[in-house]
Prior knowledge:
Number of helices: 7
Oligomer: single chain
Largest sheet: 7 strands, mixed
Low-confidence stretches: none
Amino acid sequence: MDQWLCRTGLLLGEEGLRCLAGAKVALLGLGGVGGSCAEALCRAGVGSLMLVDNDEVSLSNLNRQLIATLDTIGRPKTEAVAGRLRSINPQICLTLCRQFYLPENSSFLYGWQPDLVLDAIDTVTAKLHLAQECRRLGIPLVSCLGTGNRLSPQCLTAGDITETVSTGCPLARVMRRELRRRGIEHLRVVYSTEPAQKAVVPDDENTGRHPPGSISFVPPVAGYILAAEGVRLLLGRADENK
Length: 242
């Protein structure tokens, strides 16, 4: 057992550590949710990660994204995350994909043959295609729903997409409807039971389309839950502590 994983080994045992070390996990999206998820997977001892994101670290990321510092502004998120993960575990095997996951640009993911896919992207079209393809290919998938405009990390949880009906989450509503149209009734998701708050837009600013509000302690917690769900799936413990 590697010394740095000795505390994890006390929880998972040698067999669990070997399982995670041999696992290939693809993580799509390295923002507030995905960046924290990536680090949690690395610290848990996952041996191989595919990191997928087309963006660069920007000033507006400083309020919530683990990798965002003044030193990383302007760097591709894939590179910023990779540098941080290698500083934790130099032996980790990383595949960096600086690109968007799109229906017409998705073969790179499935050609890598992941054991698990974790979805921390925002685009509905991409999320739906990902769910379809993972189902068709028999790849376990956990998808994170909206964390914007929320203030209570204790309202975050994981469950089936059917359990999100009473949350009022617009993304969850669209996902449920469109998944049903595609014949997909069930999908493991991370979601919030907190109703989304209305964004506070200054009177002197354009009140049209704008990104959701966010804060330092909600998206990262969703990322840790996403990682936890993934690790439990890899270990065959997905039914524990539901």
